[in-house]
Amino acid sequence: MALDDLKAALPEYAKDLKLNLSAVIGNSDLPPQQLWGIVLACAMATRSPAVLRALAPEAKANLKPEAYTAAKGAAAVMGMNNVYYRTLHLLSDKEYSSMRAGLRMNIIGTPGVEKADFELWCFAVSAINGCGQCLDSHEAVLKKAGVEREVIQASIKIASVLQAVAATLDAEAAIADL
């Protein structure tokens, strides 16, 4: 199992991350499409080759082809949107927020999977990328769709653990050559 390989790759000082990987992915109560869509989108958002190589095959095995593609699309479009909307939020000149973005993001309207699942994946990626405006926007859509807080929280936990795993593995790879 790829998850076991990922846990085995973590150093002993990151034992909490190993345990958290088991808890948030290995023992998740989320339906497989929600879970593995979050995992794949977040793995892409971490930008970690090690995390992506470990988890993408398992995500592919657990997702229908259209869900696999949509999860990758969520990571891609949110990579753009999170930078754009986070910047608008941070700028002192609020006039930028009233300007038309003019950025294509058609996948959000027609993701090819259940809208709530896609929104959940976008929400998790936004947590990794730190865009408060996108988090608020996607959370509002999720709540309106009847998604429970516990499901939303589960996506945050997955995002946070995968980001920490990615940072740890990438840092270990970088200092291994020292």
TrEMBL record:
Its EC number is 1.11.1.28. It comes from the Bacteria. Residues 97-175 form the Carboxymuconolactone decarboxylase-like domain. Homotrimer. NCBIfam families: ahpD, ahpD_dom. Antioxidant protein with alkyl hydroperoxidase activity. Required for the reduction of the AhpC active site cysteine residues and for the regeneration of the AhpC enzyme activity. This is Alkyl hydroperoxide reductase AhpD.
